[in-house]
Records
---
Amino acid sequence: MVENKNILLGVSGGIAVYKACALTSKLTQAGANVKVMMTENAAKFVSPLTFQALSRNPVYIDTFDEKDTKKIAHIDVADWADIVIIAPATANIIGKIAGGIADDMLSTTLLATQASIYVAPAMNVHMYAHPAVIQNMQQLEKWGYHFIEPGAGYLACGYVGKGRLEEPEQIVKVVQQHQAKSSILTGKKVLVSAGPTREQIDPVRFFTNRSTGKMGFALAEAAANFGAEVTLVSGPTNLELSKNNVRRIDVTTAEEMYEAMNHYFLESDIVIKAAAVADYRPKQVFQEKMKKQEGTWQIEMERTRDILQSLGEVKTHQFLVGFAAETTNVLDYGKNKLQKKQLDAIVINDVSTEGAGFGGDMNVATYLNKDLQSTELALSTKQEMAEKILTLIHRDMKDEAK
Ligand code: CTP
């Protein structure tokens, strides 16, 4: 899976640089085109000439050392790469990426690339456990970087513990396996809805709900990482997509979401409704701000259209997935929604469980397909859960095609 791929190997300055030589060799043996970019500190450990010989390509270190005057090297390499592997990744380079710092060629190129990035950290055991490093790694993970965890063992600094760069063979294996997974949705068009909707009462007031959109955004990004062409229809959220490989359509009301979902539905292969759509909206929208008065204020509400159900009624080839947030009889209610809305699968959140549902970064859920085969999705980050859900959708679509 790395054959003929363009791999940029970013080497930062730690004692494990010597292992990056073996990694360069393994990657070229696996058929990849490898270019190496070193930090100045990395070049103090091993001569760039070693990497040049192993990769059979010039080695990049200095942003201003332009080898071809027609090109800007760091942008050119950033665009050239299909995959970036940072090995060894020091606490410094991890911190720089997390902070958006671009003060040398490697950090600048990392900001410019759209490639999938794998980070293989190597550092002292206490550095690896430092809250700053942990926070920076979590930040990168949120942006879709993939980590290849260091092994535990004897470290060059004399300590024994976690921080040793993973073995080159293992790094190649992890990247290969991940790449194989990354193409499971190639050629598929995926439509995802995310976030809450907002139903206006008057110019300053509206009804909404606690959805943040995190699960839907994670699904859209994971689908794009799996090779799909993705459209995300999002209600009002504070979230930004980490890459620009997803088409984003912003909507506010349930009615606008209905229009947008129907607009893209026909061309889609997989449709996932992770949005928390308002079931009701005020029957009357006041054009002027309502002034307070004595006594109570009653607002009459009317039903919005059930977008998912309407899509279930007209679907042809689309694999349609809904979400359900339940507190009691979780599986039964989920199953009823699956059947009533003619879904191919439903993801059921038991929102009474700690860690599940709205707002947080984690989720725990059950995936139920239309054959009523259920899969427990244990507590994990919304990113991890998104990958699991898409893998199950891919499995069920393959079974249907048989
Ligand atoms: N949904 C929708 N349009 C609506 C309401 C919900 O498309 N107007 C979708 C959501 O995006 C989600 C699923 O339907 O995928 C949730 O099902 P729903 O029956 O609306 O759940 P609840 O609102 O929790 O319903 P209930 O009050 O019946 O439990």
Note: The first helix runs from residue 17 to 29.
---
Amino acid sequence: MVQVNDNYQKLPGSYLFSTIAKKVAAFAEANPDKEVIRLGIGDVTQPLVPAVVAAMHRAVDEMADAATFHGYAPDLGYEFLRSVIAKQDYQDRGCDIQKDEIFVSDGAKSDSGNIQEIFSNDLKIAVTDPVYPVYVDSNVMAGRCGEYSAKEQTWSNVIYMPCTRENGFVPELPKETPGIIYLCFPNNPTGTTITKAQLQEWVDYANRTGAVIIYDAAYEAYITEPDVAHSIYECAGADTCAIEIRSFSKNAGFTGVRLGFTVVPKALVRGGVSLHAMWARRHGTKYNGAPYIIQRAGEAVYSKEGRAQLKEQVAFYMKNAAVIKEGLSAAGYEVYGGVNAPYIWLKTPGNMSSWEFFDDLLARANVVGTPGSGFGPSGEGYFRLTAFGSYENTKAALARIQAL
Ligand code: MLT
């Protein structure tokens, strides 16, 4: 008898965004005359910018010629991309990160799900609550989270750090020391963030206790306030306690293109073992490198034209964020986020549960959002809207919500 990985059986239901997609598909089928506006999953809608498209075309032409054809990419990423990342994302911000500390991948979702593999199954993870579901689910699959309580919607072996309006969405340092701490700032789903000084406290805590921070900085391009760090390596001592994960999905519209990277500093050592060496071994064994065409597209993100075009694209989405934030506030909703992130986090009206509000909004306004409780128990009573829609749809969705 083949034994399966029983940990998968412990996972409740399906992945959050799959559940939502199924519900919306059923609604659309039953109501073919209704025009549904989707502000649920954080998927971009603007096309790739011209500098990126031109780079991809050039790379395709190279692939069409034996003299410039590329086969397997170097498994850790092409040097041309790693060096421009190291310079522009890190060294230009005063962070001492070198190109050989960068591991190019097909995106932050896979990296944030896979990174737990290099840690022992005996350690405990700590997550902010609400949280991007991938961090917890990937640890459940590995058998690290204990048992699930459907009533509490929590795992017995996970440390939850609530982020609610009561604490200004700023997590407190955990009382019990975890092995891994997942942090995502600017935050998905709440759209809120913490200051660089607050992040420094986490870095100091991790260095003091030996914990490792997995820092998801997928939304750094949306930061507008000066006291917010774009990278955890802006904090002193982060190179000895933090791994940073970055994405091209939100800053460059690559959700359908797939590109990301993970930074593992060489100074990061636990139990006498280099985590950089471990991740290099894992990456080399299980991954054959992001495609040449896509890495050239990624390089174009850092070109002068690419940077200027993407600044406009980010501003476009942040204009949507303002439309949602202001529109909801005017309609009497309690609203958070949307200043340093493309997500707006609202309190559901009249003490409705997150899923009740989801159903109500879908049925009466034909607008799709994401129920806060899908991100963890402290998300109950909250709801997320994304600013990644088109301007017209965003305006139309708000008009419908205001008319409710
Ligand atoms: C979200 O909606 O939370 C994101 O799109 C998920 C992701 O980036 O994988």
Note: The chain has a mean pLDDT of 97.
